Hints:
The structure holds two protein chains of two kinds.
Chain A: E1 4-7, E2 10-13, E3 19-25, E4 31-38, E5 42-51, E6 54-57, E7 65-70, E8 73-78, E9 87-94, E10 103-104, E11 108-112
Parallel strand pairs in A: 2-11
Antiparallel strand pairs in A: 1-3, 3-8, 4-5, 4-9, 5-6, 7-8, 9-10, 9-11
Chain B: E1 3-5, E2 10-14, E3 19-21, E4 24-26, E5 33-38, E6 44-50, E7 56-58, E8 64-68, E9 73-78, E10 87-95, E11 101-104, E12 108-113
Parallel strand pairs in B: 2-12
Antiparallel strand pairs in B: 1-4, 3-9, 5-6, 5-10, 7-8, 8-9, 10-11, 10-12
Amino acid sequence: DADVTQTPRNxxxxxxxxxxxxxxxxxxxxxxxxxxxxxxxxxxxxxxSFDVKDINKGEISDGYSVSRQxxxxxxxxxxxxxxxxxxxxxxxxxxxxxxxxxxxGPGTRLTVL
Amino acid sequence: AQSVAQPExxxxxxxxxxxTVKCTYSVSGNPYLFWYVQYPNRGLQFLLKYITGDNLVxxxxxxxxxxxxxxxxxxxxxxxxxxxxxxxxxxxxxxxxxGNMLTFGGGTRLMxxx
Lengths: 113, 114
């Protein structure tokens, strides 16, 4: 969905480095989410935010942190990257009358060497 | 906690034939069920959802899904497959125990061959 953008699209980094993945949305949604996708495991929720002052841990939050800088921006940080954080990361939003439906960004492919 | 299972890692179908991608669910209370599709190098796209009402739900791109309460299933179907339907399909359920988040199945890769 072009209304949800993620940067960078691809990133290769080394073990121990700090990295930030950014997500922006123009849908005006109040809810934003970060997922990681691993083969055979589907998508697993890392963190979610229902508004700027609300941050919640998901299923697999260890090793990650987030910041909701504005309603439209939600960033994911890996403080000290490790190889098993190599995955495809997706940001998603929901809100308004379609809060049951989530709209996904194109994903960031992260490789930790 | 709510959960969904997609028992098939991959489904192979010939173009023009009907296709079914299976999903079973486990929920306490009324299920809210979803199907998403992921094309290569793209994010997930919403296909359809079941919240209440008719057991047959129609969605995007000619897909439909049948909710079966007795079998706790929500299989995705299409009467005539297209090569362009080849993608990764995810079933999801809204998890009341986790802030109404979506819990996803592991995904099923659909391969439609000409």
